[in-house]
Amino acid sequence: MNQLLEFIKDNIQITYILILSIFVGVEVIKSIPAVLHTPLMSGANALSGVVIVGAILVMLHSDPNDFIALTLGFLAVVLGILNVVGGFAVTHRMLQMFKKKK
């Protein structure tokens, strides 16, 4: 627990950015009509790609003995990749609905 508090104290600016991005993300998603959620999945894939790159950069610049940063970075990479794969699957399925049947 002390390691977690020390990590937050050492990286307070990153913590503020994370909290602010959560609030901005909730407000952006809340204001989008439900009809547009599926077509916007491709845009969400691009955002998840940014999350993956950011998590990799955080892991590269963290101390090799800082297991909290490495664990959180790894978790962010895994969840970002799952989101990208799921987004492409949903987008592909949506596009299949508009194709003419043979």
From TrEMBL:
The chain crosses the membrane at residues 12-29, 41-61, 67-91. Its main location: membrane. InterPro entries: NADP_transhyd_a_C. Keywords: Cell inner membrane, Cell membrane, Membrane, NAD, NADP, Translocase, Transmembrane, Transmembrane helix. GO terms for molecular function: NADP binding; proton-translocating NAD(P)+ transhydrogenase activity. GO terms for biological process: NADPH regeneration. It is an enzyme of class 7 (translocase). Its EC number is 7.1.1.1. GO terms for cellular component: plasma membrane. Residues 16-100 form the NAD(P) transhydrogenase alpha subunit C-terminal domain. It is found in: Cell inner membrane. It holds the Pfam family PNTB_4TM. Coiled coil: none annotated. It is a multi-pass membrane protein. It catalyses: NAD(+) + NADPH + H(+)(in) = NADH + NADP(+) + H(+)(out). The keyword Transmembrane helix applies. The transhydrogenation between NADH and NADP is coupled to respiration and ATP hydrolysis and functions as a proton pump across the membrane. This is proton-translocating NAD(P)(+) transhydrogenase.
